[in-house]
Design a protein that fits this description.
Elements: H1 2-10, H2 12-27, H3 31-34, E1 36-41, E2 51-58, H4 61-68, E3 79-86, E4 89-90, E5 98-106, E6 115-122, H5 129-146, E7 148-150, E8 155-164, E9 189-190, E10 197-198, H6 210-214, E11 240-241, H7 245-263, H8 273-284, H9 307-316
Parallel strand pairs: 3-8, 8-11
Antiparallel strand pairs: 1-2, 2-6, 3-5, 4-5, 5-6, 7-8, 9-10
Helix pairs in contact: 7-9
């Protein structure tokens, strides 16, 4: 996950320019008109219940695969397991505008660069999962039914789908909610001292099933209907990935422990100002490997640390 987000951040200018130029070249009209107008409804608390126009550009799974593998020779009965990632990337520090790309990579081919299937651009995350994911779902169903001709020899290749948990976030309760577990029906509770959400031993509770999820049988676990339930040959419980390193370890456990020690949160004993100052000095003096480009910042800025900084803290501090 970090490598994919890094790729998007590094090439965000190129991607946004490509969206504009590609649309203009194909349609010979302005880039704004060439993309789909995507209207995001703001919350009722905002002034006059106004609507904010955003843009949505869809390139498609088939086009990505054909471009990537146009010079490759495939064997008969080949299969490509596709993994999809969705997350927001801010364009500028001084603006609320952000990209929400739908990225795809081949699970068994880590050397192949991530492919950009679609990009939503707007001042907030997409409010309509149907408009954001609907076209993707329709295309995937078609490709899974018919397969796709790829490579120089035009081999018919089957595809298989895996999704990252972020694809479902808008339609189910977050993991911080007491009904938020994606895999089983465990119900969480607030810890009396730390106020953190805690979960009993998960093996004591029934596992969620594809059929029950599609039937919206899990009560408060559901927030809205997701277009992903229309995906054929796809288990919406088993085929959704929740164990990505970035969110579980770096921005999960490591961040919670470190911020707990520094700010005295979640029941952890707070470090003294002198200890925090000495730790900051020690951190900034650590020589990190050459492939790590983000150096340690002072612990006063720990609330603004990125996932890679928490990863470096875990491995090198």
């Amino acid at each position: 996950m970090p490598s994919i987000l890094g790729f998007i951040v590094k090439h965000s200018t190129y991607i946004s320019e490509y969206v504009a130029s590609n649309t203009q070249r194909k349609n010979n009209i302005s880039a704004t008109k060439g993309c789909t107008d995507f209207v995001a409804n703001q919350s009722s608390t905002q002034a006059n219940n106004k609507k904010t126009s955003a843009l949505f550009w869809y390139q498609g799974v088939a086009k990505c695969l054909k471009n990537t593998f146009r010079n490759v020779m495939f064997e008969a009965n080949s299969e490509l397991p596709l993994t999809f990632f969705i997350d927001g990337v801010p364009l500028h520090k001084s603006s609320r505008m952000a990209l929400w790309p739908i990225l795809m990579r081949i699970h068994t081919m880590p050397h192949v660069h991530p492919m950009t299937v679609a990009i939503f651009c707007g001042p907030s995350k997409p409010s309509s999962t149907q408009e954001y994911l609907g076209e993707l779902v329709d295309e995937l169903n078609l490709l899974m039914e018919q397969s796709i001709n790829l490579g120089r020899n035009g081999t018919l290749v089957k595809i298989r789908i895996r999704l990252l948990e972020h694809s479902l976030k808008a339609s189910v309760q977050g993991f911080g909610g007491k009904h938020g577990c994606m895999k089983c029906t465990v119900v969480g509770y607030r810890h009396s001292i730390s106020n953190a959400m805690c979960f009993p031993i998960a093996t004591m509770f029934p596992a969620r099933t594809n059929e029950a999820f599609r039937g919206m049988e899990y009560g408060e676990h559901h927030k809205e209907t997701t277009p992903l339930i229309k995906l054929d040959n796809f288990d919406i419980v088993e085929d959704v990935i929740v164990s990505d390193r970035l969110h579980l370890i770096d921005l999960g456990v490591t961040r919670k422990f470190l911020q707990g020690w520094i700010f005295g949160q979640w029941g952890a004993p707070q470090l003294s100002p002198e200890a925090i100052s000495n730790m900051s000095i020690a951190l900034t003096n650590i020589s990190l490997p050459s492939e790590i480009h983000r150096k340690f910042r002072q612990l006063d800025d720990v609330r603004f640390w990125k996932g890679s900084e928490y990863s470096s803290f875990l491995h090198y501090a």
